[in-house]
From TrEMBL:
It holds the Pfam family MS_channel_1st. It is found in: Cell membrane. It is a multi-pass membrane protein. It comes from the Bacteria. This is Mechanosensitive ion channel. Keywords: Cell membrane, Membrane, Transmembrane, Transmembrane helix.
Length: 179
């Protein structure tokens, strides 16, 4: 077999090895993300006297699952880039510089995220609470780090940036029972 054919075959095998490695990295990321979601659910659903009440569980569970999923997929992306011999440090440094520029331009988003983190960590509102914000009174359906969604009695779904939730009334859980 001529040397150029051997080199071509070796190059093809290397490409196949990279494809297999990338597929395995992606499969591993999916498995880790799903297993972590199961672990989060089981941990949060532990006996209530040990961990969280139902309202906090419904609020924190999707946030924790999303956070872990993003971290796992970012790590998988970095592993794939390394496998393809792409310098991830240059990309991360560029992302940091772009992040600073975006941060200066996206002060409202940062305000919303910080306010959301405090709303969640301090337990000021939970999924199922009835809150009044401005002229809107409704049941909290979803709390994310950036926004809170409430559904009014007429069925309207209002999405409110958390940074705007400076003053609001909380009537507690939808059942009206105190916590």
């Amino acid at each position: 077999m001529p040397a150029d054919q051997v080199a071509h075959l070796r190059q093809a095998l290397q490409g196949l090895e990279d494809v297999i490695a990338i597929v395995l990295i992606l499969l591993g990321a999916v498995v880790v993300a799903r297993l972590s979601a199961v672990v989060i659910r089981r941990t949060i659903l532990a006996p209530p006297e040990r961990l969280l009440d139902e309202a906090r569980r419904r609020t924190l569970q999707p946030l924790l699952e999303s956070l872990v999923r993003y971290v796992v997929y970012i790590i998988a992306l970095l592993m794939i880039l390394r496998r393809l011999n792409v310098d991830a440090t240059a990309i991360l440094a560029s992302a940091g510089a772009i992040g600073v520029a975006l941060g200066l331009g996206a002060q409202h988003v940062i305000r919303d995220v910080l306010a959301g983190a405090f709303l969640i960590s301090e337990g000021l509102i939970h999924v199922g609470d009835v809150i009044t914000f401005d002229t809107h009174t409704g049941t909290v359906e979803r709390i994310s780090v950036r926004t809170t969604q409430i559904r009014t009695a007429s069925g309207e779904l209002w999405t409110i940036p958390n940074g705007r939730l400076e003053v609001f009334g909380n009537k507690g859980p939808a059942s009206g029972a105190p916590r």
